[in-house]
From TrEMBL, chain A:
<dbReference type="InterPro" id="IPR027413">
    <property type="entry name" value="GROEL-like_equatorial_sf"/>
</dbReference>
<keyword id="KW-0963">Cytoplasm</keyword>
<keyword id="KW-0067">ATP-binding</keyword>
<dbReference type="InterPro" id="IPR002423">
    <property type="entry name" value="Cpn60/GroEL/TCP-1"/>
</dbReference>
<dbReference type="InterPro" id="IPR002194">
    <property type="entry name" value="Chaperonin_TCP-1_CS"/>
</dbReference>
<protein>
    <recommendedName>
        <fullName>CCT-beta</fullName>
    </recommendedName>
</protein>
<keyword id="KW-0143">Chaperone</keyword>
<dbReference type="InterPro" id="IPR053374">
    <property type="entry name" value="TCP-1_chaperonin"/>
</dbReference>
<dbReference type="InterPro" id="IPR017998">
    <property type="entry name" value="Chaperone_TCP-1"/>
</dbReference>
Automatic annotation (TrEMBL), chain B:
<dbReference type="GO" id="GO:0005832">
    <property type="term" value="C:chaperonin-containing T-complex"/>
</dbReference>
<dbReference type="Pfam" id="PF00118">
    <property type="entry name" value="Cpn60_TCP1"/>
</dbReference>
<keyword id="KW-0067">ATP-binding</keyword>
<keyword id="KW-0143">Chaperone</keyword>
<comment type="function">
    <text>Component of the chaperonin-containing T-complex (TRiC), a molecular chaperone complex that assists the folding of actin, tubulin and other proteins upon ATP hydrolysis. The TRiC complex mediates the folding of WRAP53/TCAB1, thereby regulating telomere maintenance. As part of the TRiC complex may play a role in the assembly of BBSome, a complex involved in ciliogenesis regulating transports vesicles to the cilia.</text>
</comment>
<dbReference type="InterPro" id="IPR027413">
    <property type="entry name" value="GROEL-like_equatorial_sf"/>
</dbReference>
<keyword id="KW-0597">Phosphoprotein</keyword>
<keyword id="KW-0206">Cytoskeleton</keyword>
<dbReference type="InterPro" id="IPR012718">
    <property type="entry name" value="Chap_CCT_epsi"/>
</dbReference>
């Protein structure tokens, strides 16, 4: 009797070499996919969604690309997952982490082919990762004390991050925007206080940072268009018909006149509510929910600016910046905290009218208005700016800074190489492989820029043999240059996260010797 | 043949077969069952030990799990064969009972089945084999008790516990920081343990994970974390000396269960109803305020109005807290879960030294920490890690380590790991076999051979010569009469497990042997498999 089939019909099982092969192939395929987007001269990808409208996204953000892929290979999913986490945690380096993990696996594949056990490779990788991290720790620069220098560090980091994005043309402009915005946060990582508004039209250069808060809404008809020293009540309350919330209540009438009476009562109720709101002594009322015509009219009569249907985030942010609280009941006006701002006015950006709150109480908040030729450009610009903001806000907390342009990789590779020479046993092959994987990153950056990578990396390696060298790849001139002079910096936190997550992911995939795939869940045909 | 003839010579069918059913009977059935059982154990064999490999499992929905925890692998495997399902059950029951050794038990059962197949071929009746196995398992369990060592620990001396947990963790992906995790697990277990009664309620330990950071950031929190944030963005983010009202009733007007309708037909009614409604909200909030609560945790949602009223009264609140978490909070803070506002009294409030909201990473992830609780026995292990799979796997590993620590508190006897206990048992069973007359002797001897399978698999996974290593260790054990020798998986240089500090719990090992024997007995007794044929 042959071996019984123990799994369900469509389930499949892959063992040993074949399983390892499948995961290597999957992971390396993903790496090759995003590899070309790495570095300042990396290329973009067009993603077309299968959903309605076949929307198109143009991006070179690793996390965005990988998020949109439909992948069946389980190992590839691991890589997508780490890039997602990198995005959530530090915001940048999403491509690098995948590329490094992929290169580690590519090297591991060679070692496995040379009959080295995966467990040996893993322990070698672990040692190498630890050593690489220490190497970075020794070379970090921390300018926390010197505010002036720190600011220039931030500026450099922002420029480095942005230079690989669509914004690279105006990177100085945007780096300034991002640094200003983050400096306003004063150390908090709460990026919610930075609002990004996208308005098609104009060019990227026309984007600007506004110190106040801009709400993408229109002012109700017949209400003042400009208020100075505004007192703002931020509310979340129904301003349509106030429903009776007691369960099971319903209106039952027997004549038309009764209907009219009830309607009158309802109106009366609304009028009372409005009166109570007015009792707060406000001159601006912002509600999350709809404001019906009747109360709107009442507000207009009282000369109050009423803004309806501000979205949820908008309300929270507005409450945050103006220092008011979000109110839902209006019975005790004395204890409700009102928001204040110096000036509310309607402004025009392009064709659209927006409401601008300036001179707000909390200095932290600000708005960045992005202008650009098309939605795609704006979306990509937002992603790039988001990356830069994330990195900067993380750097404010962890002020350690490294040089960029492949410099950290070379520093790590050198130390790891030293370690390999000192380590006896088979592990040293794995450690050596780790350093090769690290060098792969500057190689890819050079390749993407159309440079002679073999030549450049060899030169770089020679340079790095000297103590305290700052050499990295200068993609613009296509040669080896001094990164400190060129002002190319990266945040230590990002590099560390890239190194650790990539090693972790590679380790995880290496440990697998069997893949069991369950039968896909049957979906009912939706005809 | 299921065909019989009645007294008139007419044929009739007793059991309908051929079209609807497939049927295997006799030796064929047993062989088929055994090969299915072995196929399952073969899958797990490579996951055994510190150098065991992981399995990647893809669920029907495409989610990926990477693990080397036997119970998890089998659970997710989508098994169709009935006997294979028995093996899955086996590993699951080991998981429920002991929590660790789920891979070992399946490997053991597979080895027993393999040996049984050989005996069957020689014409020994399956029941006799089963009986022989039963006797042998009894010998092995008794022998384990003989070689077990008591070891002492106390709240101050936790080192031995940490060592044992490290043995468990070393076979997992988290082995990189096994020391730290083992310490966390042991501390967690000790803080909830009732050392007098030797009881540990693992429900009091909550294992939470959040993607991001690194494994080293994993921490033990003396309190509880809730994956929620304050219901109103402007409520205070930190409360000291909190008095917590734990509610399972929504901040909404009551909804009587009986069907009813309130008809509004006059303006007066409309207005009274309105006032009534406002009063409800006011009353509810006032009630909470009156009893002195400084934090409201509610299982249900609040109305916008209620939310604002709470905010207004300076009463922070958390909504949509799950039932399990609510219970944990109640246990930890010493509060009572209050189902109605009327029943809220000051005694029913829970107390916590510090409640704070913490945010993570660049996204708006927020969590609520409730610390320094009145009843400090509820703890949370908060795991950070590079990706989701890592966190899940760490959770499973921590679970195993917690179970081990708990077992040790229940029963502080240990045996030596690394296959040392199995080898020692195998020697004892082999020696005892000769004393039994009859066919069972063969079964007992086969059992001894099966016991060797675990150290053999360990050696194989560690890249050693399995047969050579095993025989060397075995002879060493007999020669020096010392049951501490095992397989040197980590290539440390010594195979004395006492020096390597590789321990396993006695009850865990015993349970493994007993459970594996039971399942094998059950499988051996099946001589007819009738299943609907698929067509």
């Amino acid at each position: 009797m042959a071996i019984e089939k123990i799994l369900k019909d469509d389930a499949s099982e892959e063992k040993g070499e074949r399983a390892r092969m499948a995961s290597f192939v999957g992971a390396i395929a993903i790496t090759d996919l995003v590899k070309t987007t790495l570095g300042p001269k990396g290329m973009d990808k067009i993603l077309q969604s299968t959903g309605r409208g076949n929307e198109v996204t143009v991006t070179n953000d690793g996390a965005t690309i990988l998020k949109s892929l439909h992948i069946d290979n389980p190992a590839a999913k691991v890589l997508i997952d780490i890039s997602k986490v990198q995005d959530d945690e530090v915001g940048d380096g999403t491509t690098s982490v995948v590329v490094l993990a992929g290169e580690l696996l590519r090297e591991a594949e060679k070692l496995v082919a040379a009959k080295i056990h995966p467990m040996t490779i893993i322990s070698g990788y672990r040692m190498a990762a630890e050593c690489a991290r220490n190497a970075l720790l020794q070379r970090v620069v921390d300018n926390k004390e010197n505010a002036e220098k720190f600011k220039s560090d931030l500026m450099k980091i922002a420029m480095t991050t942005l230079s690989s994005k669509i914004l690279s043309q105006d990177k100085e402009h945007f780096a300034q925007l991002a640094v200003d915005a983050v400096m306003r946060l004063k150390g908090s990582t709460n990026l919610e206080a930075i609002q990004i508004i996208k308005k098609p039209g104009g060019s990227l250069k026309d984007s600007f940072l506004d110190e106040g808060f801009i709400l993408d809404k229109k002012i109700g008809l017949g209400q003042p268009k400009r208020i100075e020293n505004a007192k703002i009540l931020v509310a979340n309350t129904a301003m349509d018909t106030d429903k009776v919330k007691i369960y099971g209540a319903r209106v039952r009438v027997d004549s038309m006149s009764k209907v009219a009476e009830i309607e009158g009562a309802e109106k009366e109720k609304m009028r009372e509510k409005v009166k109570k709101i007015l009792g707060h002594g406000i001159n601006c009322f912002v509600n999350r929910q709809l404001i019906y015509n009747f109360p709107e009219e009442l507000f207009a009569d009282a000369g109050i600016l009423a803004i309806e249907h501000a979205d949820f985030d908008g309300i929270e942010r507005l409450a945050l910046v103006t220092g008011g609280e979000i109110a839902s009941t209006f019975d005790n006006p004395e204890s409700v905290k009102l928001g204040h701002c110096k000036l509310i006015e309607e402004i025009m950006i392009g064709e659209d009218k927006l409401i601008h709150f300036s001179g707000v109480e909390m200095g932290q908040a600000c708005t960045i208005v992005l202008r650009g030729a098309s939605h795609h450009v704006l979306d990509e610009a937002e992603r790039s700016l988001h990356d830069a903001l994330c990195v900067l806000s993380q750097t404010v907390n962890d002020t350690r800074v490294l040089l960029g342009g492949g410099w950290p990789e070379m520093v790590m590779a050198k130390e790891v190489d030293e370690l390999a020479r000192k380590t006896p046993g088979k592990k040293s092959h794995a450690i050596e492989a780790f350093s090769r994987a690290l060098v792969a990153i500057p190689t890819i950056i050079a390749d993407n820029a159309g440079l002679d990578s073999a030549d450049l990396v060899a030169k770089l390696r020679a340079e790095h043999h000297k103590e305290g060298c700052n050499a990295g790849i200068d993609v613009i001139s296509g040669s080896v240059g001094d990164m400190a002079e060129l002002g190319i910096s990266e945040a230590f936190k990002v590099k560390q996260a890239v190194l650790l997550s990539a090693t972790e992911a590679a380790e995880m995939i290496l440990r697998v010797d069997e893949i069991i795939t369950c039968a896909p869940r049957k979906r009912e045909d939706r005809m | 043949m299921a065909l019989a003839f009645d007294e008139y010579g007419r044929p009739f069918i007793i059991l309908k077969e051929q079209e609807q059913k497939t049927r295997l009977s006799g030796l064929e059935a047993q062989k088929a069952n055994i090969s299915a059982g072995r196929a399952v154990s073969r899958i797990l064999r490579t996951s055994l030990g510190p150098k065991g490999m992981d399995k990647m499992l893809q669920s029907p929905d495409g989610d990926v799990t990477i693990t080397n925890d036997g119970a998890t692998i089998l659970e997710q495997m989508d098994v169709d064969n009935q006997i294979a399902k028995l093996m899955v059950e086996l590993s699951r029951s080991q998981d429920y009972e002991i929590g660790d050794g789920t891979t070992g038990v399946v490997v053991m059962a597979g080895a027993l089945l393999e040996q049984a197949e050989r005996l069957l071929e020689r014409g020994i009746h399956p029941i006799r084999i089963a009986e022989g196995y039963e006797m042998a398992s009894r010998i092995a369990v008794e022998h384990l008790e003989c070689i077990a060592q008591k070891f002492d620990f106390g709240p101050t001396n936790i080192e031995p516990l940490v060592q044992t947990c490290m043995t468990t963790l070393s076979s997992k992906i988290v082995s990189r920081c096994k020391r730290a995790l083992a310490e966390i697990s042991v501390k967690a277990v000790l803080s909830v343990a009732d050392l007098e009664r030797k009881d540990v309620n693992l429900d009091l330990i909550k294992v939470e994970g959040k993607v991001g950071g690194k494994l080293e950031d994993t921490e033990l929190i003396y309190g509880i974390t809730v994956d929620k944030d304050m219901s109103h963005p402007q409520m205070p983010k930190q409360i000291e000396d909190a008095k917590i009202a734990i509610l399972t009733c929504p901040f909404e007007p009551p909804k009587p269960k009986t069907k009813h309708k309130v008809d509004i037909d006059t303006v007066e009614k409309f207005q009274t109803l309105r006032q009534q409604e406002q009063k409800y909200f006011d009353d509810m909030v006032q009630k909470c305020k009156e009893v002195g609560a400084t934090l409201v945790i509610c299982q249900w949602g609040f109305d916008d109005e209620a939310n604002h009223l709470l905010m207004h009264q300076n009463l922070p609140a958390v909504r949509w807290v799950g039932g399990v978490e609510l219970e944990l909070i109640a246990i930890a803070t010493g509060g009572r879960i209050v189902p109605r506002f009327q029943e809220l009294t000051p005694e029913k409030l829970g107390r916590a030294g510090l409640v704070r909201e913490r945010s993570f990473g660049t996204t708006k992830d927020k969590m609520l920490y409730i610390e320094h609780c009145a009843n400090s026995r509820a703890v949370t292990i908060f795991i950070r890690g590079g990706n989701k799979m890592m966190i899940e796997e760490t959770k499973r590993s921590i679970h195993d380590a917690l179970c081990v620590a708990r077992n040790l508190i229940r029963n502080n006897f240990i045996v030596y790991g690394g296959g040392a206990a199995e080898i020692s048992c195998s020697i004892a069973v082999e020696a005892a076999a000769d004393k039994y007359p009859g066919v069972e002797q063969y079964a007992i001897r086969a059992f001894a051979d099966a016991l060797d399978a675990v150290p053999m698999a360990l050696a194989e996974n560690s890249g050693l010569q399995p047969i050579e290593t095993l025989s060397a260790v075995k002879s060493q054990q007999i020669k020096e009469n010392n049951p501490h020798f095992g397989i040197d998986c980590n290539d440390v240089g010594t195979n004395d497990m006492c020096e390597q500090n590789v321990f396993e719990t006695l009850i865990g090992k015993q349970q493994q042997i007993l459970l594996a024997t039971q399942v094998v007995k059950m499988i051996l007794k099946i001589d007819d498999v009738i299943s609907p044929s698929d067509y």
